[in-house]
Amino acid sequence: HGMCCFEMDIWEANKMATAFTTHPCTVDGPFKCTGTECGEGAKGERYLGVCDKDGCDFNGYRMGARSHYGAGPEFQVDTNAPVTVVTQFHTTDGTDSGDLAEIRRFYVQGGKVIGHANSTIPGVPGNSITDSYCSAQKQVFGDPDDHKAKGGLKRMGEALDRGLVLALSLWDDGATEMKWLDSQFPVGQPPSTPGVLRGPCDGSHNNPSYLRSAHPSATVKYMNVMYGEIGSTLPGAARRLGTVMV
Asked: Is the Cβ–Cβ distance between 53 and 39 less than 8 Å?
């Protein structure tokens, strides 16, 4: 048996790459799966399970914006300094009861509102997660559109309405060594292949054993976590970013 559940990755990041990702499922709530329902990749059943394991991600670096996020003043978002990460969930009709239609991301740093990176990948426009963005990305990158098959943003929104558990962590990855976030992935594919380059890391020191021995005192601080109606968690001076209400 296994446990399958919806997953909304609000902010997965290191200092050089970041992504936010939706993982919808065809079931409601936590689901005790058996056999094919679990979607075990080792059995060739990854896309036969009840949940979208790939998800629909927006990683600015992967989408061609190489100078948007990183460690240093040359980046629009400088991870050497504290930053506020803002995520908005917009519905089809602008009400709390409408279907989820778009997930927007922007940052606030040094009193400045910084919009999310725009995709520069031909055929995949935008700077937010929508069903059309997800399907376009899957097509251009040659990935199965399991996000659409599992119900897309509508199903993700229904899960958010029911309620999800907030988890804050500092973690590593023994299965893929975090290369899906910041390196070349799938491993072995040329970096020139669309969608393969996820971040600037060369992947040579990604394994958990090295990370835990070389960086035993690594830390992260999450502060001032807030949620509320759109615009309610920011100072009034930072309420508008171009045409995007924040």
From this structure: yes
224 pLDDT above the threshold of 80: yes
CA torsion 74→75→81→86, rounded to 10°? 160
Higher pLDDT residue, 243 or 174? 174
CA distances from 224 to 23, 227, 234 (A): 26, 10, 11
Q: How far is CA 93 from CA 96, 102, 162, 236, 243, in A?
A: 9, 11, 19, 24, 18
7 assigned to active site:
yes
Say which of 7, 40, 74, 229 is annotated catalytic: 7
State pLDDT tens for residues 75-115: 999 999 999 999 999 999 999 999 999 999 999 999 899 99
Q: With CA atoms as reference, report the closest residue to 104 among 95, 122, 117, 123.
A: 117
Does 12 participate in catalysis according to the annotation?
A: yes
The active-site residue, picked from 12, 45, 158, 229, is 12
pTM of the shown model: 0.93
